[in-house]
Predict the 3D structure of the following.
Amino acid sequence: MNLTGLNLHTGWLIGTSSLIAVAVNMAAYAGQAKTARAISWLDVCGEGSIVMLTLLWLVAILASRPAGHVTHLLSAGLNCFLFTALLDLLDEFFTYPHAPWISMMESLPGAVGMVIMSVALLGWHREQLALNRQLQGVEWFYRSHEKIDPITQLYRGDYWRARVHECQRQQWAAGVLLLDLNNFRQINHRYGQAEGDRFLKEIGRLIRMHLRPHDLACRYAGDRFAVLLPQMSEIDLVNLCSQLEASVQQVAFKTGQQTTAIFHSARTARALLTPEQPLDALLCSLNALLDGNAHQAAG
Amino acid sequence: MVSDKQLRLKPLLQALYQTAQHTGLNTAALLRGTGLFEEVFSQPLCISPSQLVRLLNNFQRLQRTPDSAFLVGDRLATLLQQDVATPLLYSPTLKHWLRAAPLVLGDFYTLFYVRRYIHQHDQYLVVTSALGTFAGWPLLHQILLSAFSQLLKQWGHQRVSLRYEFCRPTPTNIADYQVMLGTRLYFARPLDAIVVKQTITHLRPQSPQLDGKHIDATMPPAAVRTPYLPLVSLCRLVHGRAARRVTLPVVLRQLALNHSDLNLAEAARCLALSPATLKRRLADFNTSFSAICADASREQAVFLLSYEGLTNEQSALKMAVSDLTNFRRAVKRWTGLTPSQLRQR
């Protein structure tokens, strides 16, 4: 787990540590320690693992999410639950003959924590809908974070193929388009891999700008991008291809401190999707067209 | 023959290192257990086959993106093109290019054993590891193919239409293969091979590569006047020697292919080693004499039965196996399939 995100939440980390310290001190102050024979180690194991896992969940949430309303609610709810679980664990080691209020302290925060977490879940649901809207054009009905390309933040070719296959299976009318950058190796060669990656990222954004919300753009592989366009007529597909090629030609890319722009070009290949045509054969012919060897597809 | 710490592989090591840095790999973890230090990536140091194997195994294990091997191969092609592979640009035809590549690529080519078979109108270049058996072989194979494909593309100014066959099943990242190697890809085949149609071996590059810039960088002025150098001079020019080095598994594989009844004692005698030393040296490559013999026979049997479609009698005759019943049993042992099943593939 990458824990660098915890830097944003020092307040919550201090708060959780304080809460643990309060619970332990409270139990030690008000309670009397049990003898080793009176301790039920099975209960200690069960309740101890609940405390540890709640703590792990809290760390996972804080490490994964930026600060905000939903994160605060989730953290508050989990902290309340953690307090209850910790007191529950501690009463395996202590008895409280003179402090019956501890039992009340033990049960109440857990219930409050669950209510807060339920409100947080509602907020998380709304937040997720907003994020889904942000991901329009790059994600379709299925999330698979390990297939996201780290450079362009688009999904990779295997995700795109799976979605196209799904389209064929459902017999949806759609068009497919592949875009390949001409002589992209020259950018890597002259300006370095980092600048090449930045160029790819910008081209990914440029392609997204040309798409409708329900289209899907992916980085097919290398310097090749793939787009899936449901409900797209042949003429619209042709127009989109020429628009994309023209747009790539107009990009005045600048590297480092240089003010001189680098202009680049791209070529496209397109086809309308039919349920009966095998996807592999279709992609073979499109890729062969882009490679400039139309006869490749046959062999 | 390559013994300890004799491989000069600076371009490959640089390509591995640059790709590791670019994809966010921990370079300290990459070098762990290899006995190598970070200066191996920048200085022209020699390494041993076992150090390279450990490095490739680490890379294979740590790689974060499925296209890492292709990125290494692409980068390697650029580094080779700027250095030793420049003379390849002067090859007048694909046939010359294919003959010149092993000579020009030097120690990088030492990592592979490529055996050429000809069937009907196709030339099959069957690629196997020269470093024995190791987990990082798929990575090294992909690096070779992508570097090969890119070098060929730079020579021809467009993708040269070759067919690539792989033993492995269709990978999930087939898109990377298509973009890097072209669309003529066949998976789950009996051999790892590059297939060149005999009709395209006379293919010429689309436009001349004599732009002067490359020539001045690596070649003497006399070469400027000669578009294509004779192969031996070219090899001497690049490496200062005419012969290519080979590893122990390759020597044994060649012996096994030429002598079907070769045994360990005879092989050791041919190499002026004791059988125990031969076994120990093969153990460094994580392989054994019997495994090399079985693999060589497997390759021959698969080609004769599956590609050429010969009968058992014809195949046994070509492999110098006298006992036909024994041949059927041996094929089953080498390949896991019977001769008739192989013919149907």
Strands of chain B lie at 7-8, 46-47, 112-119, 122-129, 163-165, 185-186, 193-197. Chain B is about 55% helix and 10% strand.
